[in-house]
Fold this protein.
Amino acid sequence: MKNNTYMCLLRSSTGECEQPSASEMELQYAKYQAWQQKFADNILDMGNKLGSAGSVVRQESASDGPYIELKEIIGGYMMLTAATLDEAITVIKESPMVANQGTSIEIREICTP
Amino acid sequence: MSQTDRVEHLFRHEYGKLVALLLRRFGVQHLDAIEDAVQWAMAQALDFWCRDSIPDAPSAWLYRVAYRHLISEFRTTQRRNSLITEHLSTLASEVIELEEASFAGEMSDSMLRMMFITGSDAIPIESQLVFTLKSLCGFSIREIALRLFITEANVYKRFSRAKAQLKTQTLELDMLSNDQMLARLPSVHRVLYLLFTEGYLSSHNDTAIRRDLCEEAIRLTSLLAASNVGDVPAGYALLALMHFHLARISTRQDEFGSLLLLEQQDRHKWNKQQITLAMTFLAQSANGDIISRYHVEASIAAEHCLSPSFSQTPWEKIVASYELLHNIAPSALHRLNQAIATAEWKGPEAGLAVLKSTDFPEWLGRSYHWYTVYSDLLLRSGEITLGRKYADLAIATAPTDSIKRLLSKRLLER
């Protein structure tokens, strides 16, 4: 079966939250590892962080900042491969990133002609 | 080795090392900025290592990132501080020249010095304990509160007290002489002992949480014993004591999480390797003329671990050991234990006689420990009415449900 490629955009609200401790980060890392191993076949590229500086260019003008909404920024992206959108959703739903408060992940298929 | 194995406890263990190393370099007065920088470096690591892979030298990676962050913080917030100019000039060369081997050595050395810095008489022991957990073991205020059964506000207060006190000590970590470190060694041992017993004796239901503290204590105690200053008989005795106890930890609860008494524990499940290791440390501790409380406590733990069954326990030796322990470190708690061992050796009436010959302080005389022992010995010697009365008191004052269940099983269903 032909697999589709999906781009996942990580959005997080910019609210102040308490810094996790070393032992909490250790747990977080273990969760990431487990997730990456489980879905190794689906994860094409863990992607990267996106800088917070940027600009939105429209016909009329360029506006400051990459903000979708005032309080939400796209913090990073990653690439998945999956047979269906549902499968991609399953992979993302189990990821530790979703568990972070204030984080939402948008999944979009990359269309190839 | 898989990635996960390499990283198990890496964050937590590196945290203390990095904080210690940076404190040594920049001074205790920058503790807050240093903790922030280390935390920041770890957040970066979490992000980059998840996307990519762990670098070959994760410690050096973390150190570089934390160091740079700290320097840039200093640059923006404390321009006038002469410290920066002093350190900035060496920054470039230093970071590049880091060699993993000598680096690792310097790290553990800094950890040790940190333990001694906090071992000052001016800092209350409970504040020392919290400081150790926070800055050397990488636990958050919330996690410490959970592990020590105190409120977060209380943890914060203790931590602040230690921090405030440390900042008034102008002495640098390198300025502690060998003699000063030796003088503080008992206090460092005491904190490690407390750290272990908090984990081991706590009535927390979650075994993993209790294990954490025990393992942290063993890690730091091992580090200490491997150093010049800490290479003393009492240090090995402390290590032996910890390993003897930890060998039994998994048998202290049944499959439903209820606490089990020594008599009911499955001795086959005690960790034999760990007992052997403990014996090795105990042999190493049998040196010199000073017998510490850790020696005596380790020997009591050893008698239990080596005895093939509860009934074959050499109670007379244990009674003698508690007598000795009480002479070295007088505590009514030791007398209470002695009463229990005496009852096993010579019968409940002899145990009661030990209780009656001792003045128990109020904090113990009104605790469920004392009520339990007293009730148990009364019931066993046939004084049912009085025994029941104290059994009720014991159950009413027990701190957790699992202990209440254990007590009513032992005292009332006989």
